[in-house]
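Lab notebook, bench 4. We co-purified these components, and the gel suggests they stay together. Before we commit to crystallization screens, I want a quick structural picture of the whole thing.
Request: model the full complex, all chains together.
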Amino acid sequence: MTDDAPNSSTPPGLLPAGLMDLLPPEAEREAVLVETLMAAFAGHGYERVKPPLLEFEDSLLAGSGAAVAEQTFRLMDPVSQRMMGLRADTTPQVARIAATRLGLQPRPLRLCYAGQVLRVRGTQLAPERQLPQTGIELIGSDAPAADAEVALVAAAALAAAGVPSVSLDITLPTMAPALLEAAEVPPALRQRLARALDRKDAASVAALSGEAGPLAAALPVLLAAAGPADGALAALAGVELPPAARAIADNAAAVIAAIRARAPGLRITLDPVEFRGFRYHVGVAFTLYGPGTTGELARGGRYMSLNEEPATGMSLYPDAVLRAAPAPAPRPRVFVPAGTPEAALQALRAQGFATVAALSAADSPKGLRCSHRLVDGRAVPISKEG
Amino acid sequence: MTDDAPNSSTPPGLLPAGLMDLLPPEAEREAVLVETLMAAFAGHGYERVKPPLLEFEDSLLAGSGAAVAEQTFRLMDPVSQRMMGLRADTTPQVARIAATRLGLQPRPLRLCYAGQVLRVRGTQLAPERQLPQTGIELIGSDAPAADAEVALVAAAALAAAGVPSVSLDITLPTMAPALLEAAEVPPALRQRLARALDRKDAASVAALSGEAGPLAAALPVLLAAAGPADGALAALAGVELPPAARAIADNAAAVIAAIRARAPGLRITLDPVEFRGFRYHVGVAFTLYGPGTTGELARGGRYMSLNEEPATGMSLYPDAVLRAAPAPAPRPRVFVPAGTPEAALQALRAQGFATVAALSAADSPKGLRCSHRLVDGRAVPISKEG
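Here is the predicted assembly.
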């Protein structure tokens, strides 16, 4: 991810690991994509907020922000002499806005955002330390219809961006803990079971849940049930569950039914006992995958916002979406000699051309990477010129 | 600029001085404005780049970046153990990209950018410490037509954003130094003259330039000539100037003629001996002002880029432009009951409505700030309801 200067050994071209320049045409592609996603959110009533990149670390890392504390750059504010953080996630900032400046606005509140997030270290698989992030938060409703809405709006935004087909993976991060809690599994055994679930190690889960007693007997069944939502829901319906776990299962069924009612064609999978990586989610958690191997495009779910407000939301990763969406046709560039009348230039721009002006006799259409030149006042493709 | 929580004394609502949240509808307005400006730049052949928010401080503060060194937040990169800076200006980053990754691309190079810049301290008049910045850089041409182009493209972008009329102020930051240099004015007197010019103190300038000898005699004349470009150009033509100063005057006349040829209606003023605040400009420097008291909307001019490449550019300040541009009509919001068919919702969104779904029986059009409701499948304004 470092950037080698092509023709010098001086340092100006060197960037820190995980930080990079987006060049033409990728930078414009990303910006267009972000605004396409934001327009889809706005069409569903989500109103844009723009929190600052920096804020006091204690407010930035409150609530769900605690999950990214280790990944947050800190710096001293010379004005207040207090520590500030450079955001690693936007959701905690939106929660702060909802609880304070929009605290008196009637619920549910629908907010959306787009901006950059930074993190202290990349990983081997995801080396980037600056990422664009867009997303929606629906705050103040605990209805399954709210969870269904955020998943559907995210899928609609991806469709607007040209991602041909997505699939929605639903997990229930509180299900396994609820089962282990109800079974009164002792802490040491609980840790071993959690690790076995984490590894999806069916043999260990079966053996350990035998030790854990009859109330944990659902675990191997639910581990095996992960897959298309209908099968997983049937497995959930068929096992004996303690009341807290049953409520989680019923809620998942209601969310899936609400999604199905509005998007019958969406592919949905359900993994009832998966609980990795969603540390602050309290109900359903969502991941949207693109087609083929394009990977994870969006992630979200239900969480508890500040002041114990129920909330649900989705974060989309435009850099991943870019890899899954088709590249648009490049903007045609027409070379215009000095003295071309302004009205003619404006007409060309209105047709979608970039007008690239000659500034000296040395400028040529080829040098300026133009696709078109002016012949009798009309833009003519250069390759087709007679 | 701090943010008081409306209904609690807890800290979550408090932001560092000069950092703030943009709320609905301002956040969307700013984003739409930025993309409007960027679309105007793209229409003139400027291609978007997106440098990272953080980079090594030695590359961030090279070249014109030195001008903002004191205003740049620094933080340690734990990966490389080197200091990084959080950008206070985007121009130095674009210069780095032009010199390295785009070093082999034919010139002139037309690049544009949009993003956030941060600075360590605000001022009393401009307390913000995070500002959106957009701009264009035209690298590799020393033609007056290049300077004219960047001023005109910036004015065209402001017009596209709805700013009704702008005026262009041109200064020649190297003119006074060139005169003082040619007159061989001793350093102490030169400093006093510079301060008098800075204060526009005509009496002192007259007295001090008398002491400085005949070659400095142009200074009081040029100070008095500041104003509409035609008069200032006439004054420049009428005074005796040493060769270096004459070249600067001729170049200014050529730039103004090139602007006039393409935008005869643009109001242009010229202040030949003004040189404040443009420390790295080497030819003409530009400021674009909005109508009335809306103030400075854009600033730029000619500078020397990395590898001694001639360059010229403009930076636009969307927060200032927002104050000068008319506010668009708010997006109409239509309240849609649960179960409204998807096709009907899509049709409403295609008409420009935000569809705001009821999630529970408690949701009402008024509570969700809707302007419209559905009656017989059509959106009807709520205030006009029978």
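Residues 243-262 of chain A form the longest helix (20 residues). Worth comparing against the SEC data before the next meeting. The two ends of chain A are 44 Å apart (CA to CA).
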